[in-house]
Structures are given as structure tokens and as C-alpha cells.
Design goal:
Layout: H1 2-24, H2 38-51, H3 54-58, E1 79-82, E2 85-88, H4 105-114, H5 137-149, E3 171-173
Parallel strand pairs: 1-3
Antiparallel strand pairs: 1-2
Helix pairs in contact: 2-5, 4-5
Amino acid sequence: MQWTRWTAVATSLGTVTIAAVTLSCTTPGQQTAAPMTQAQKLARGEYLTTIMACNDCHTPGTFYGAPDFDRRLSGSELGWVGPWGTSFARNLTPDPETGIGSWSEDDIVKTIRTGQRADGTEVLPPMPWPMYTNLTDEDAFAIAAYLKSLPAVSHKVPDKLPPGTKPGKHDWVVPEPSAWDAPRTPPAGAPADSVPAAH
């Protein structure tokens, strides 16, 4: 009787020990959560585009204190003028003619992470894509799914303009940087001599 009791205790302890060792050897990357439902994915994408300030540039009216969420992320005609020329926040809705309707979710994720659009052109400032390079796959694809789910808005954003173009009346001019803020390399598309020498 006593041996039976000790055998049961030893077996139980052995099982607990094996379970503990197995769990301790599992890396965090191996402990995967259940995949998100489509509704959770879209909610996550909406949340991320909100906290990552996508609406600031891409939703009309935001910089004037009155974002128009009926035209959410449909682009802006406020030009950003700097050494790269003049850029405009693009239409991110799935409109096939003026937005990203022809883009796949993979195209969107690539652009967010690399600063290169589906057609191979570079994303210009002020788009802060270098900050998004470390998004997890789950988050990056949640953003892509959310953008594809938006109501399509037909809005052709002005084309980018080359460096040296006279600013328009709706353009915001980025002042020449101080020596402290001067980039060590020219922004994409800017001539090398447009960057002040660092002191």
C-alpha cells in the first residue's frame, strides 16, 4: 500500500517536472496566439492607423483641426516642400483609379516597411516609413486589411513636384535645417548639394 502511494506521488511529480521543462524550453516565438478573426484584424488595423498618425497627413482637414472622417485617408492637397521637392499625402482608400485599389496586401506591407511603392517609386517625406520597419507581420497585415476595407473615395492627389519648384499657396515649407538637424545624406530624390554641410 505504501509503495503504491509513493509510486503515484513520484509519477505525478515526474509528469509535472516534464511539463515544466517542456514549457521552459519553448521560446516566445513558438508560443503563438490563435489567429485574429477578420473583425479583430480590421479593428487592429483601424487602431494602428490611428495611433501611428496616418490620419494626420492622409485624412483631409486634420491639420486644420477638422478631420473629415467621411473621407478618411483619401489624401490631402497640402503640399510638403523640402529638399526632396513637394510631396502630397496619397489617397490610401481602395479606389481603383486614384487610390490603392489595385494593390495587394503584400504591396501595402512592402510600402509601409521599405518606403517603396508597388510600382517601384520611393515614398517621400514626411512619410515616416523607417519607424514602421519593425512592425510585426500581424500588425502590418492588419493595417493592409483595414486600408483595403475602407470605402473607396475618388480623389486624385496632386503629383509630386521636383526640388526647386516654387511652393504653392497650400504648401507647407520645411525650413532649411540647422547644422544640428542637417541630414548626413540627402533625402531621396534630392541633389547632393541641397544638403547643408554639417559643422
